[in-house]
Amino acid sequence: MKYISTRDKNNICTASQAILRGIAADGGLYVPESLPTLTAETIGELAGMDYRTRAEAVLKMFLDDYTEMELAFYVTKAYVSFDHPAVAPTVKIDDSTYMLELWHGPTCAFKDMALQLLPYLMTAALRKNGETRQVCILTATSGDTGKAALEAFADVAGTKIMVFYPENGVSKVQKLQMTTQSGENVCVCAVKGNFDDAQNGVKAIFGDRQLGAELSDRGWILSSANSINWGRLLPQIVYYISAYCDLINCGAVKNGEQIQFVVPTGNFGDILAGFYAGSMGLPVKRLVCASNANNVLTDFINTGVYDRNRPFHTTISPSMDILISSNLERLLFHMSDDAETAGYMAELSKTGRYTVSDRVLKGIQSRFVSGCLDDEGTMAVIREYFKNGVLVDTHTAVGCGVLNDYRKRTGNGGVSVIVSTANPYKFCGSVLTALGADHDGDGVELFGQLEKVTGTKAPAPLGTLGEKTVRFTRSVEKEKMPETVREFLK
Ligand SMILES: *Cc1c(COP(=O)(O)O)cnc(C)c1O
User: Fold this and answer.
1) How far is the CA of 291 from the centre of ligand 1 (A)?
2) What pairing do the DSSP bridges indicate for beta strands 353-355 and 259-264?
3) Which residues pair with 370 in a beta bridge?
4) What atom in ligand 1 is closest to the CA of residue 111?
5) Ligand 1 center from residue 143 Cα (angstroms)
6) What is the rounded distance in angstroms from the CA atom of residue 93 to the CA atom of residue 399?
């Protein structure tokens, strides 16, 4: 299967090259030239397998320059460190509501689902392409990607990893997770700005040919662990399919019956994976895109106008504080073509806004609906769910609240799966506030209190965080990001 750039369909490469490069030279994102089909029969077969085997089967459909043996080995290694035997369990809330728990990995957010696998795909891609240079992973993070990428690439031979996070844009626990990261090949740096500044800075470094040539002379290539990389999206397609299989197995749906997924969204990577699963043939009636107060996507899906010229809000769901959702570019491509997509992206970088054609808007609205929820609404949902015995984090709560509103407007709509993206302990301060518990600070010192108030247990990888030493304290202006990378690769 070939991969092409969203901005030029004649810019073609193999799967391993798409993963190695992260982003196309024309600034576009790689997408598969065509999608494999998922028949009801295949879904039935997948339902009989465990998560790893499902993952292997789905990856095989997309990565034809990797062998079956390689893929089998990678998925086995990638998901050993998960603390749940089902890896990504689908948990029943009520007869028509399920929660897909994606935070059983080592960093307690859904980013582990893909990032635990990415180093294997990436180092194999180096080999397959006769690449003798080493790869440096550059990542901008709104909190969770950074830690998941660090954990995945720490001390992986032939790689280095550098993570940029917005100085005041992540939770205390998220920050501590990153700044205490071990490993000889890792570096973490704060950026004075918000997530969009950090992400734009990283994209600019990828586009800087002079810097690229200089680093190449010194034996380095750059790649990305953000969801602009196809290697990030593909493993996420697996869990949509896997959740559907789980619903068949527990009798919640019959094979072929349509369901909806509700996805707390920021960079549009997670929900786009759901779109791909639906496009392959998974019976997905609708994808519900849930945003926080940074509701640029809600407006876009409702009106067809994407406009990032609006205030940036720092919210209690920081991993969704994003005004430029990179992966929307892939959706635009699938709804139009390369030339039209390149046009929208040029508009976006020039004016910060674009309006899609009627045809594209109709296409998007046939698959997506959208809603948003502010911090106050999010807190109310955390309270309401907890009353019913379910503790959710601030991001998942946005999804729950948007689903509530949607059902009020349109009726129940059949079985819905809420994609649960993080463990609540990552955001313990906000969760305690939501539950009405008085507290000081918002870091690891609150774990004991949250355990007492909720009768739950802090996950093991977070529990030991307070004993670790902070290794990285640097903070730079966004203009200094290229220089920081140069120094790291000296
Ligand atoms: C990254 C993240 C999101 C948003 O996912 P996107 O793929 O960027 O849309 C939502 N919730 C949590 C907890 C996250 O870490």
Assistant:
1) 10
2) unpaired
3) 289
4) 15
5) 9
6) 14
